[in-house]
Structure formats: C-alpha cells, structure tokens
Amino acid sequence: MCAMRTEDVPTPPSRDTRGPHFVQSVARALAVLRSFSGERPRQSLSEVARATGLDRATARRLLLTLADLGYVGGDGRTFELTPRILELGYAYLSGLSLPEIARPHLQKLAAELNETAALAVLDGDDIVYVALVPGSRLAAVKINIGTRFDAYATSMGRVLLAGLPPADLDRYLARLHLTTRTERTVRTVEQLRQEIDKVRGQGWALVDSELEEGLRGAAVPVRDRAGRAIAAANVSLHAGRTTPELVEREHVPAILRTARLIEADLVGTAFG
Predict the structure, then answer these.
(1) Domain segments of the chain: what residues?
(2) Using 50, 70 and 90 to split pLDDT, how confident is the model at 176?
(3) Are the CB atoms for 137 and 90 separated by under 8 Å?
(4) How confident is the model at residue 138 (pLDDT cuts 50, 70, 90)?
C-alpha cells in the first residue's frame, strides 16, 4: 500500500456538503481504509479514530464491518489491512492499458541504465505510480505500484504539473501547502512556478534530493495524440552515483526515447 501522511487522511465530509445521493457511511469506511499506510500498517482503535476524525464507536463499527468483509484483520487490540484490499485497486489497474503498454519499455530502460524506471499519473495533488521496474541498485525510498507522493517534490509530478492548463495550474498553486522534506525542497510557490516553467520549456524535469535526501529523479512526459501529458516516465537513482550533468546528458535522452516508444504503442488505445 502507498505511504499516506496523516494530513492526507480526509475527514469524511458531512452530508450537508454533498448531494442527496451521498452515502456518509461509505465515505467514512473509505477514510478508515486510507488511514492505514506504510508508516502506520497497524493501528489501534484510538489511532484510527484520531486519524479519521471519527468517534471511537463509529470507527469501531466500521473496522469490525471491514473485518467481516475480509479487508481488515487484527488481534482485537490493533488492526491492519489484509491482502484482500488489493482487490479494490486491481480492477482499475488491470483494465488500464497504459501500464501494460509501458512496462516492456520501462524494463528495457531499467536494464539500459541499471536504475529504477517508473510511470506515474497525476491524481489530485499527488502522483501515483502505475508501473514500476526496480533496478538492481536499491533506491533511497521504498516505492511500489500505488505509491503516492506530493507532485511538487518529484520529477514526474513537475512534468505533469507543467502539462496542466494554466488555469488548473493556478488553482493547484493557490491551494498548495509546501512541506519541507529536505534542505533542498522547494520553499515557495513562486520558486515552484519558476521550476515548472523551466520544465515546460525544456521538456523534462530533474529533481535532486527534494523528495528524499540522496534521491535524484529525472522524468519526461508521455503524451497522447492531442499533445496532453497523460503520464510521466522517470528514472530514479542515488545522487552519489552520478551528477546532474551526467543525468541530463545520458539519462534524459534514454527516458525521452522510452516515452516516444510508449506513445507510439498507445495509438489506437483509449489513451492514444
């Protein structure tokens, strides 16, 4: 499952904020599921209630219902997700032709550069990994399919933000709350806008130790026939193994070639 920050777990919206169709119990159950993460794989009832903003009685009923359905397990004092939770995302991922098309090209890219290659899409203010080919060298952070990161702090995120229509980008920047993850993380919205403008102009992004100290990522957009950036392809590597100049000279052209091959294979699909 993806790493979820505490502030990312939404408080279930009240029925008054939605239409008459809105089912509050469904929103609350999903909030309970989303409260679990790589950082919090096991939680007590109190922890789930605190993370979701629900009272203990409601959180308990939802946890027990999810346990009856097989999505949550535990010993009575603490709870954790079960492998059955993967069913909820499988239908989406298995029906999504983009990762299937991209994977063989990412495999070749990972083998060529001996680094981790990935594909991500923009979901709200985050990127979500939909395809991943680990390299033989270990990355600085653990990443799996479904992992989410703040878009602004990643190379793939900046590529996708650069592809947004101006009005959408303005709305994103207006609501953005920047978190300092490392000493190099972009500090202001204006600085981020300048970086996005740079990415838009050059057609690729390089983020150096902003998401995690020692992690360097380079990414390029994957576009449909209309020229929209529907995904981003990237390579992640340890900063100590190379320099930004070498990444630009050797890695970026390889990622660009990979993106063009993916785009060619997308023609005729729902993403083409």
Answers:
(1) 6-84, 96-266
(2) very high
(3) no
(4) low
Q: How far apart are CA 83 and CA 35, in angstroms?
A: 16
CATH number assigned to the domain with residue range 96-266, chosen from the 4 options 3.40.50.720, 3.30.450.40, 4.10.320.10, 1.10.260.40: 3.30.450.40
Closest CA to 150 of 114, 183, 116, 175: 175
Tell me which fold the domain 6-84 belongs to.
Arc Repressor Mutant, subunit A (1.10.10)
| pLDDT score at 253 | 97
The number of C-alpha atoms within 13 Å of 109 and in the hemisphere containing its C-beta is: 33
Length of the chain: 272
E strand or H helix at 264, and its extent?
helix 252-266
Residue pLDDT, tens place only, 46-70: 999 999 999 999 999 999 999 999 9
